[in-house]
Design brief:
The protein has 422 residues and is of the alpha/beta class. It is 41% helix and 19% strand.
Length: 422
């Protein structure tokens, strides 16, 4: 297809999505839940088709230069499809925030004002690699009454098409409006540009992927973008920390799943406990095959082989790997200053028995999630009790932190009068 034809096709999808969004506002919570259960059944009923599509993607993986880890994210099997279907059923059980009254009050002139939660409208999701995102994103948006236009990466195009078709066609007999879930069938970069420029029909874009994808979307988008570039997460071990607790939190934050955005990337240790704590944590992490990159003081105290000198770049790097930067800081003020300068405003944690120090840390650290005495790995919608999330936002407007159902809503004011004029 020519560039012009691709642009026209995406514009038509935008028109269809806007019509679907209007129809979605009329669905009751019960109707939406019935449709979600039908979608889940359709995903399982079409398992053979989805697996066959996935095999096509896997067959092209080597030609596309995918790593072993990327292939694993791409691969589907019975268990992963069953998990996808169960995830849809779980969303049906979640509270529907649309229509909730956020606040209501009366004015002296008798006007009654209601602030009510509403769908955003049409949401574009641009994502890479994982075909399960097709289902996750679509059903979360649907539960909140939003129409969705999805644009996945070329590495998962066949899988994404099969899943999106199962969702839309499976939900249709139960009452899903036409075009509520649409997948852009084009994988060229131009399709991203056309989607980002379609502000007439698209209300919001959420990119999920690497920094280069997010930067490209932000540079082109004519509508709001909710995003996070990096997850440069910190743990600060204060002088009042319990060493056993600190070690457990560090190990979990770094190693429970190193490749995710809420994994620990930089460890800060208070100078007053460095002599006793550094050798202990260095030995523990080295035994677990973590490459340590430390400042001069850490290197002197570590007592293990293989510690590399940290450079300025290490303090601002999201490794997503078995690598950890470590710095000894003079005090709480120095820790806060370091995190606010080098961090990505994602998730940071302090380990301390001092409630006053913890309160200062949580007040002064400018991040979406600020923890006291717990692992950074808890920065997650499910762990917060939201049931599901569409991603983590490091923005400050309109959503911040784990983006769950409430964050996929906007609001409007309903003003009821009895003939008042100004």
């Amino acid at each position: 297809m020519t560039s012009e034809e691709i642009g026209e096709a995406i514009l038509q999808m935008g028109k269809q999505a806007r019509a679907a969004a209007h129809a979605l506002t009329k669905l009751s919570t019960g109707a939406k839940n019935t449709i979600l259960l039908a979608m889940a059944d359709a995903v399982m009923a079409r398992e053979v088709d989805i697996l066959a599509a996935n095999e096509k993607d896997l067959a092209a993986a080597d030609e596309l230069g995918l790593t072993a880890a990327m292939k694993d994210r791409l691969r589907l099997d019975h268990d992963r499809i069953a998990t996808m279907a169960q995830g849809i059923r779980d969303v049906a059980l979640l509270n529907d925030p649309t229509g909730e009254i956020i606040r209501e009050w009366a004015r002296p002139n008798g006007l009654e004002i209601v602030k009510k939660r509403t769908p955003i409208g049409v949401i574009g999701i641009i994502f890479e690699s994982r075909p399960n995102v097709t289902a996750d994103a679509a059903v979360l948006c649907f539960k909140t009454g939003n129409a969705t236009i999805l644009r996945g990466g070329k590495e998962a195009i066949f899988s994404n098409r099969a899943i999106a078709t199962a969702l839309q066609e499976g939900g249709a007999p139960a009452g899903l409006p036409d075009h509520s879930i649409q997948l852009i069938p084009f994988t060229n970069r131009e399709s991203v540009r056309f989607l980002c420029e379609m502000d007439t029909y698209l209300d919001l874009i959420i990119p999920r992927g690497g920094a280069s994808l997010i930067e490209a979307v932000v540079s082109m988008a004519r509508m709001p973008v909710i995003k996070h570039y990096d997850g440069i997460c910190h743990v600060f071990v204060d002088k009042g920390a319990d060493p056993d607790m600190a070690e457990a939190i560090i190990v979990n934050s770094k190693l429970q799943k190193p490749s995710v955005c809420n994994a620990l990337e930089t460890l800060l240790i208070h100078r007053d406990i460095a002599t006793s704590f550094v050798p202990r944590i260095a030995e523990t992490l080295s035994a677990k095959k973590v490459e340590l990159r430390g400042d001069e003081t850490f290197m002197k105290l570590a007592g293990v082989a293989g510690v590399l000198p940290a450079t300025e770049k290490d303090w601002e790097t999201e490794y997503l790997d078995y690598i950890l930067a470590v710095k000894i800081v003079d005090d709480l003020d120095a820790a806060i200053a370091h995190i606010n300068h080098y961090g990505s405003h994602h998730t940071d944690s302090i380990v301390t028995a001092n409630a006053e120090s913890a309160a200062r840390f949580q007040l002064e650290i400018d991040s979406a999630c600020v923890f006291w005495n717990c692992s950074t790995r808890f920065a997650d919608g499910a762990e917060f009790g939201f049931g599901a999330e569409i991603g983590i936002s490091t923005d400050k407007l309109h959503a911040r932190g784990p983006m769950a159902l409430e964050e996929l809503c906007s609001y409007k004011y309903l003003v009821n009068g009895s003939g008042q004029v100004k």
